[in-house]
């Protein structure tokens, strides 16, 4: 029997960002200072002046010029911070607390998400033999669809423009469905998108892990009236793989979705700005390549240098202000970058994460996740921004992670996490619905909930 102690739950220490992972420095143009830059920074100190009236005058002029230059440089950033503080999001400065799960609730969670396989195969996470993988692989996010159904079609009020950022957009189906959901516009259709991205059957895409093309798209009423301008709603589809990014751009142009808010960006996101090399070859829609395994040869041949932004830098540069010149909320942030998810989140600590209403990311054993505990990112999102995070299941199942910690959650198996910012009024109902669904999940029969267990095992196991 699992002994429940305070040590089983993540404490709430003062969070500080972890050091950048070593892997990032192994790539060309990783954004790290070069030796020449280091020498430049060391020599860029205040000059010395000989004593005397003329020297004092020179020094005074130098200081005035320096202050003026600094003011000109920093003022746009100050204005931007002012806009961020003045935006229309109703948000408290101190995140509200989330109640701790009771001992009985933790025991139920442990029965529904048992640790046995997770511990048995801990050293072989690529086998994906863990209840967390069984339960969260290819989640259906019915809680989010319910939120936008209510927002768009039952409230009776005009809805603000929708803004989503998909980091690791891959084939684009999930991003397009999000734009359909958020804008309420039926013109965004997965069938039309599939025809375009496959070049009407001429191009074979890399295999689908979650069969996005066949999964039902967001349901819109037959006589739907778009309640927010499709030309104001946006989804940023960010994809670093050159072949996939080209196919995404061509499909967006053919469908004219690029004129209606479906924005394809050939870029990579991490904690810092810079460049990273990706192979110019490869199938369209490869789902298991990222910064850690770009398939570029050691000599750099046949590689493409892709611009790398921090989340903050990307948002500042490419995400527009609203009609009142205030920053818009980011309604939906999806991060799926093969192990670099936490690095992407750390790149948004200045202002972007504070704007996010709903967040999804993957946890696994590759890239920086190898050495980063999940508890660290859960604490970070909770303490710094007020996110409550859950294991994202399917068939109306969801399990809270924040303040409901179990030790086997540190096993680095592929799993999906969904978080809601409980301190933003615009998604209070979503936060309440997710917590309600969590409580309903705990009331389900354990065997019924655990029907997932054999769903992804091979037939010979």
TrEMBL record:
Residues 1-42 are annotated as: Disordered. The keyword Transmembrane applies. It holds the Pfam family Methyltransf_21. InterPro entries: FkbM_mtfrase, SAM-dependent_MTase, SAM-dependent_MTases_sf. The keyword Membrane applies. Residues 33-42 have a biased composition (Polar residues). Gene3D superfamilies: Vaccinia Virus protein VP39 (3.40.50.150). Keywords: Membrane, Transmembrane, Transmembrane helix. Residues 235-386 form the Methyltransferase FkbM domain. It comes from the Eukaryota. It comes from Discostella pseudostelligera. This is Methyltransferase FkbM domain-containing protein. The chain crosses the membrane at residues 49-70.
């Amino acid at each position: 029997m699992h002994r429940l102690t305070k040590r089983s739950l993540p404490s709430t220490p003062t969070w500080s960002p972890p050091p950048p992972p070593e892997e990032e420095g192994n790539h060309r143009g990783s954004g790290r200072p070069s030796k020449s830059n280091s020498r430049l920074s060391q020599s860029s100190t205040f000059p010395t002046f000989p004593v005397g009236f003329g020297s004092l005058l020179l020094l005074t002029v130098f200081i005035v010029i320096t202050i003026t230059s600094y003011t000109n440089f920093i003022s746009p950033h100050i204005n931007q911070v002012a806009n961020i503080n003045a935006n229309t999001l109703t948000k408290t400065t101190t995140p509200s607390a989330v109640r701790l799960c009771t001992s009985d609730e933790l025991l139920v969670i442990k029965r529904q998400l048992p640790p046995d396989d997770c511990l048995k195969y801990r050293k072989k996470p690529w086998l994906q033999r863990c209840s967390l993988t069984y339960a969260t692989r290819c989640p259906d996010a019915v809680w989010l669809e319910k939120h936008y159904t209510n927002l768009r079609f039952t409230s009776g009020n005009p809805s603000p423009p929708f803004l989503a950022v998909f980091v690791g957009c891959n084939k684009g189906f999930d991003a397009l469905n999000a734009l359909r959901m958020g804008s309420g516009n039926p013109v965004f259709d997965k069938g039309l998108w599939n025809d375009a991205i496959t070049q009407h059957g001429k191009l074979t895409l890399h295999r689908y892990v979650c069969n996005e093309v066949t999964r039902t798209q967001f349901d819109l009423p037959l006589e739907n009236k778009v309640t927010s301008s499709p030309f104001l709603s946006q989804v940023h589809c960010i994809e670093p793989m050159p072949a996939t990014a080209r196919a995404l751009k061509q499909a967006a142009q053919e469908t004219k979705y690029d004129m209606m808010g479906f924005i394809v960006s050939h870029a990579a996101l991490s904690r810092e700005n810079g460049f990273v090399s990706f192979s110019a070859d490869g199938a369209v829609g490869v789902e298991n390549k990222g910064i850690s395994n770009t398939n570029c040869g050691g000599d750099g041949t046949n590689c493409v240098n892709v611009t790398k932004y921090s989340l903050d830098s990307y948002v500042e540069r490419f995400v527009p202000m609203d009609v009142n010149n205030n920053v818009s909320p980011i309604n939906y942030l999806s991060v799926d970058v093969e192990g670099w998810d936490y690095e992407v989140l750390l790149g948004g600590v200045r202002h972007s994460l504070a704007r996010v209403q709903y967040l999804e990311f993957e946890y696994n054993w590759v890239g920086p996740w190898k050495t980063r505990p999940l508890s660290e990112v859960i604490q970070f999102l909770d303490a710094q921004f007020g996110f409550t995070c859950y294991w994202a299941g399917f068939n109306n199942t969801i399990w809270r992670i924040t303040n409901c910690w179990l030790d086997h959650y540190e096993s680095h198996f592929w799993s999906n996490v969904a978080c809601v910012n409980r301190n933003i009024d615009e998604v209070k109902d979503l936060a309440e619905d997710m917590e309600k669904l969590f409580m309903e999940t705990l009331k389900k029969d354990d065997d019924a909930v655990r029907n997932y267990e054999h769903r992804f095992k091979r037939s010979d196991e």
